[in-house]
Amino acid sequence: MALRNADLPEQALTRFQRLAEELDDPWRRNQARLATADLKRQLGQNRQALADEESILDELDPDSWQARQVLDRIEDALLKAGQTDDLLQLLNQRLERSGYQAEIVQRIVRLLRLRNRSAEALQLLEQQLTAAPQDRSLRLLLIDEYTRSGRNADAVEQYRSLESAGLLRPADREAWGRLLLS
Asked: Between 20 and 30 A from 98 (CA), which of 4, 21, 91, 181?
């Protein structure tokens, strides 16, 4: 990794690309490919770096920690570059391809909130819950979005759905009670 930090990123890029091709272990190969993407960013090749990261992401189990790590890297790079719309587009494309991924939905909702697009976040959550009605995390996100928009009765109804599905935890019950008292 010493070459990676040297003043010769082009040489490091070539070596990491070669290393990624030669490695048999998928995890190490992906680490070399991610290092290659980092170097491409240093060289101003942002689109190529993003394409490399997306390629890695396509090969990973979408529910794995590695996929979340690559998504974090992509999100971080695009947000630092001020490309929130590009990030939203990329996440929406991944969601369309996969059909449903809680991690992607959560990221999209968070970005929509940052952009003050709560109505779109609500619509997405409601739509995704029809595809995955037993997903507790999505239902909790929907509850949070309902309470943010002042739709407490709808939030209470979602707590009831959690309870009837056997997904309600003690902390949820407490939050539900606080909501009822507000």
From this structure: 21
Residue 168, Ramachandran bin (φ over 0: left; ψ between -120 and 50: alpha; else beta):
beta
Token pair in block for residue 29: 């190969």
What lies within 8 Å, CB to CB, of 78 at 6+ separation is 50, 84, 86, 87, 90
**pTM: predicted TM-score of the whole model, two decimal places:** 0.80
* Distance from C-alpha of 113 to C-alpha of 36, rounded to nearest angstrom: 32
CB 42 within 8 A of CB 48: no
Q: What are phi and psi of 174, to 5 degrees?
A: -65, -45
- Name the helix (H) or strand (E) containing 155: helix 152-164
Q: CA–CA separation, 33 vs 44, rounded Å?
A: 17
Tokens at 39, concatenated:
């170097």
**pLDDT attached to residue 63:** 84
Q: What is the pLDDT of residue 25?
A: 92
Q: How far apart are CA 5 and CA 10, in angstroms?
A: 11
Q: Please give the pLDDT value at position 122.
A: 95
| Residue 40 token pair | 């491409």
Q: Residue 153 is encoded by which pair of tokens?
A: 């009765």
d(CA 48, CA 140): 36
CA distance 117 to 146: 13
